[in-house]
Design goal:
The protein is mainly α. It is built from 9 helices and no strands.
Length: about 350
C-alpha cells in the first residue's frame, strides 16, 4: 500500500497536464505583426524573413539620415571656409557651427531615444506574457527548480533594466547630449570631462548588467538543472521498481509525456524568439542607420578642419550607440532566457 501511495504521488508530480493552450506563445504585438513570417518555421529561416521585412522598411530612414549627413557636412564646410578668413572672431564661427549642428541633431536624437524606450517597454511587456509559458513548459518536463530560478532571475533583471533605463539612463543620455553641445560650442574642458564621466557610467552599467545576468544564468542553470535531472532519474527508477511487471511501461509513458511537453515548448519558444526579434529589429536598424551616418559625417567633417563640429557629431553617434546597447541588452536578455528554457533539464 505504501508503494502504491508513493507511486501515485510521483506520477502526479511527473505527469503534469499538458495542453497546447498552456504552451502556446502569446501573439505578436501590432507593431511586430507585419514582420512575422506567415507560419512558424525553423528559427534561422524565420529570423531571415523577419530581418528581410525590416530592411525593406528602412528606405525612409536611410533617405532622412542621408539628407542630415549632407547638411552636417555643409555646416562643417562653411565653418572651415569662414575660419580661413583672418579675423579675431573664429571662436564665434565654431560656436555658431556647433549650435547649428546641435539644433539639427537634437530632434532626430529625441525620436531615436523615444523609439528605444518604446522598444524596451514592448519587449518587457511581451516577456511578461511569454516567459510564464516557457516556465510552465519547463516545469512540465520536470524542471521545477530550473524553471523557477530562470523565470525569477529574468523577471528581476527585466524589472531592474526597465526601471534603470526609464528613471536615470535616458535622462543621462539627454544630459550627455546637452553637455556635448555646450562643451563643444564653448570649448570648455570641464564640461567635456563631465560628459566623458557620464559616458563611462552608462557603458559600465550596460556591460556589467549583462555580465551579472549571464553569470546568474550559468550558476543557477548548473545547480538547478543538475537537481532537476537527479530528481527525474530517481523518480523514473522508483516508478520502474515500485510496480511489478508494468513499472517499466509506466516509466516509458512518463518519458513520452515529458518529450511531448518539450516539443510544444520548443514550438512556442521558436515563435516567441521570432516575435522578440520582430519587436526589436526595426528600431534597432533605424538607430543603427543613424549611428552609421553620424560616424561617416564625423569622419568627413574631421577632414575639413572643423574639429569642434566633428567632435559634437561623434558625441551624438556615441549617444546612438548607448541606445543600441540598451535595446540590444533587453533583446539578448529575453533570447538567452528562452534558449535556456528550450535547453531542457540537465
Amino acid at each position: 500500500m505504501r508503494r502504491v501511495l508513493i507511486l501515485l504521488v510521483i506520477i502526479h508530480a511527473l505527469l503534469v497536464p499538458v495542453s497546447a493552450m498552456e504552451f502556446t506563445a502569446p501573439e505578436a504585438p501590432d507593431e511586430a505583426q507585419d514582420l512575422m513570417p506567415p507560419q512558424t518555421e525553423t528559427f534561422g529561416e524565420g529570423l531571415w524573413k523577419v530581418i528581410s521585412a525590416a530592411i525593406d522598411k528602412l528606405q525612409p530612414q536611410i533617405s532622412k539620415s542621408g539628407k542630415t549627413c549632407i547638411m552636417l557636412i555643409s555646416v562643417a564646410l562653411l565653418v572651415s571656409i569662414l575660419q580661413q578668413i583672418p579675423t579675431e572672431k573664429n571662436g564665434i564661427v565654431e560656436f555658431a557651427g556647433c549650435i547649428a549642428v546641435g539644433v539639427m541633431l537634437l530632434d532626430s536624437a529625441g525620436s531615436m531615444i523615444q523609439a528605444a524606450v518604446d522598444t524596451i517597454n514592448s519587449l518587457s511587456e511581451y516577456g511578461k506574457m511569454f516567459l510564464p509559458v516557457m516556465a510552465g513548459a519547463q516545469a512540465a518536463q520536470g524542471g521545477l527548480a530550473s524553471s523557477a530560478a530562470l523565470y525569477t532571475g529574468t523577471m528581476v533583471f527585466d524589472a531592474i533594466l526597465g526601471k534603470a533605463v526609464s528613471v536615470w539612463m535616458i535622462p543621462l543620455v539627454y544630459m550627455y547630449l546637452a553637455l556635448s553641445v555646450a562643451g563643444c560650442a564653448m570649448g570648455e574642458d570641464l564640461l567635456k570631462r563631465i560628459r566623458d564621466l557620464i559616458k563611462w557610467l552608462i557603458t559600465w552599467c550596460l556591460k556589467n548588467g549583462l555580465y551579472i545576468f549571464t553569470g546568474y544564468l550559468s550558476i543557477t542553470g548548473v545547480v538547478s538543472g543538475a537537481t532537476d535531472a537527479a530528481k527525474l532519474k530517481a523518480a523514473k527508477l522508483t516508478i520502474s521498481s515500485a510496480v511489478p511487471v508494468v513499472g517499466g511501461i509506466l516509466s516509458d509513458a512518463s518519458e513520452a509525456v515529458l518529450v511531448g511537453a518539450g516539443m510544444m515548448k520548443n514550438a512556442a519558444g521558436i515563435y516567441g524568439m521570432l516575435t522578440i526579434a520582430a519587436i526589436w529589429i526595426s528600431p534597432f536598424l533605424q538607430i543603427g542607420i543613424q549611428y552609421l551616418m553620424l560616424k561617416i559625417s564625423g569622419a568627413l567633417c574631421a577632414m575639413l578642419d572643423a574639429k569642434r563640429v566633428s567632435s559634437l557629431i561623434d558625441s551624438f553617434s556615441t549617444a546612438m550607440g548607448f541606445l543600441l546597447g540598451m535595446t540590444g541588452i533587453m533583446c539578448i536578455l529575453l533570447l538567452i532566457s528562452t534558449v535556456c528554457f528550450m535547453k531542457g533539464v540537465g
